[in-house]
Write a structure and sequence with these properties.
The complex is a heterodimer of chains A (295) and B (278). Chain A is an all-alpha fold and 295 residues long. Chain A contains 13 helices and no strands. Helices cover 79% and strands 0% of the residues of chain A. The chains are: A mainly alpha (295), B mainly alpha (278).
């Protein structure tokens, strides 16, 4: 019986609170029916257009059983495609990472005229069709290209060979790392570097000990995105590769070759590896985003 | 580019700027310049002859028309997705948010064969749809589906931060003045996110126009029916008709640069709007 007034007191507390903050949440609240409809449409649209294709990759890859799946991945041409893709992605990340750090240093730590033009030019590959990214290198180094005759005379192969694949991949992944670094380094300013330098540290040492630790997560984030795109690039590489199986076929090109041979299960088996890479990239990206947020 | 440096104690400007400009020129600027150089080898009437041919015109019409349609669909559904993600709390919201990035991360060739298989007559969706008399795979409708797939994250990721930053006081003020919920959304929220919506639309459009990998598997690639402009470039290259490939590419490149210019202008507008409000 004595507990009753206490419960009364407690139950009267929320309304008092609601009076103190006059209907704040309500102003942005939609009617329940609208709310339910919007969530249903969002879930339905994403499920139908985005999730279902992804699930289909794995369903088709295992449609003919695990044995078919494994033997598809053991195929020599497929293995060579995997090796080539790893090599190309590693090289692209390395070169674009080095460029990204250099360019971000110049852009973020110094003031100069034309900075915005330079940033726009760096972003340019994003707005170029992958097919055109491949085409420009054919026009330069192909047999009928600007340097074609000279290259042929010196027996140097760029198009339909590894160098062409590398050039095309580096082109399409060009902005990925540098555009993660520039805003962060601009925000961080130059004070820490100036302090290190005034204490007698060399420029290189300042970069390695001060700048690099400050941007390591953004750098890793950029590397992740650059790597995913480099491994998955299709259009640009397709134009310059020549499609030689076991030699110049990357994983996406091998998928195309298998699919056109009506080896659907094998094509989806290779595709499932790239889909897995995409999922791992997204998970790592989410983990990094929370970390970058904390820094 | 005029480079003028402010006095600074930080070292390494010369070397980092030098390597950056050199690398940028070698990988991006010179190759793109080579494309325009190659185009100048054509006379004006040759250029027009290539571009105005029936097959090329149809490819452009198809690429730009379907890209506009796909970007428009993404604008509508992208906005609904953003609204659900930003304004509501429901189980699975974080997962839904992550799902949006899948088209960014999934390689285009993988998306291409997955969509083709899904919408082919033997596929999960193609089967039921064909009973309704709707053919998706190997028709322009299939191209449209692929372009919707790849364009969605551009709209969502452009609009999402703007809606998140929208001050709640704006809507509360409107509500306290007696405006209905629908009026508030239409007259307060929509104008505030309009620049971001347009930017997202333009980004999705720019991506769709140049898209190749996810489209060519599902398109069917019939000349004058379902042949997109990027594919026609590839076909002309394989036929060693470099001049044709270059002319088509030059038109597409100019279109993308115009879009890029528009997107930059939109983003500046979006930023000044946000700035004025703060």
């Amino acid at each position: 019986m004595t507990a009753l007034p206490v419960t009364d007191l407690e139950s009267s507390a929320p309304p008092a609170c609601a009076i103190a903050r006059p209907r704040k949440a309500d102003a942005r609240e939609d009617p329940p029916l609208v709310r339910r409809a919007i969530i249903a449409v969002a879930v339905g649209f994403l499920g139908l257009f985005i999730v279902l294709p992804l699930i289909n990759v794995f369903a088709q890859a295992f449609a003919k059983g695990i044995e078919t799946y494994l033997s598809a991945l053991r195929d020599d041409d497929t293995r060579s495609a995997i090796h080539l893709t790893l090599l190309v992605a590693f090289t692209s990340v390395l070169l674009n990472g080095a460029f990204g750090l250099a360019a971000a240093w110049a852009i973020a730590k110094f003031d100069f005229r034309g900075k915005n033009v330079l940033i726009t030019l760096i972003d340019l590959p994003f707005s170029v069709s992958p097919v055109i990214a491949g085409l420009v290198f054919v026009l330069l180094f192909g047999l009928q290209g600007l340097f074609g005759a000279w290259l042929a005379a010196h027996d140097i192969k760029i198009i339909f060979a590894l160098p062409g694949i590398l050039l095309a991949t580096i082109f399409v992944t060009f902005p990925f790392i540098v555009r993660e670094l520039i805003p962060l380094m601009q925000e961080q300013g130059t004070e820490e570097e100036e302090a290190a330098l005034s204490l007698g540290a060399s420029g290189i040492k300042t970069f390695i000990r001060v700048t690099l630790p400050n941007v390591k997560w953004a750098l890793l984030y950029g590397v992740l995105l650059c790597n995913a795109r480099a491994m998955g690039e299709f259009g640009a590489v397709s134009v310059v590769s020549g499609h030689i199986r076991g030699e110049t076929n990357t994983m996406p090109l091998q998928i195309e070759a298998l699919y056109e041979d009506y080896q659907s299960a094998a094509a989806f088996a290779v595709a499932s590896l790239l889909a897995l890479l995409a999922l791992v990239t997204l998970i790592a990206k989410a983990a990094l985003e929370s970390r970058v947020g904390k820094d | 580019m005029v480079v003028q440096r402010r006095r600074s104690v930080i070292p390494g400007f010369g070397i980092t700027m030098g390597t950056s400009l050199l690398w940028l020129s070698l990988i991006v600027l010179l190759p793109l310049a080579a494309l325009f150089l190659k185009t100048t080898e054509l006379t004006f009437s040759q250029f027009v002859g290539i571009i105005a041919s029936r097959r090329v015109l149809h490819a452009f019409q198809l690429s730009f028309g379907l890209s506009l349609a796909a970007a428009a669909v993404n604008l509508v559904f992208g906005t609904i997705v953003v609204w659900a993600l930003v304004r509501y709390r429901f189980p699975g919201r974080k997962l839904l948010d992550a799902v949006v990035d899948i088209p960014f991360a999934l390689p285009t060739a993988v998306a291409g064969i997955a969509l083709t298989n899904l919408y082919a007559e033997s596929g999960w969706l193609g089967g039921p749809l064909s009973q309704l008399g709707i053919k998706v795979a190997f028709t322009p409708l299939g191209i449209f589906v692929a372009l919707v797939f790849i364009g969605l994250p551009f709209v969502v990721r452009t609009v999402q931060p703007v809606l998140e930053d929208l001050e709640r006081e704006l809507e509360e003020a409107a509500a306290s003045l007696g405006a209905s919920r629908w009026t508030i959304v239409r007259r307060v929220v929509l104008p505030a996110v309009a620049p971001a919506l347009l930017t997202g639309f333009a980004l999705a459009l720019a991506r769709a126009v140049g898209e190749y990998g996810s489209v060519i598997f599902i398109a069917g690639n019939l000349p004058n029916v379902s042949e997109i402009a990027p594919l026609l470039i590839v076909i002309r290259l394989q036929e060693f008709r470099y001049a044709d490939a270059t002319a088509i590419a030059a038109v597409m490149l100019i279109a993308s640069f115009l879009l890029l210019f528009l997107i930059n202008a939109l983003q500046r507008w979006s930023e000044t709007r946000a700035g004025n409000r703060a």
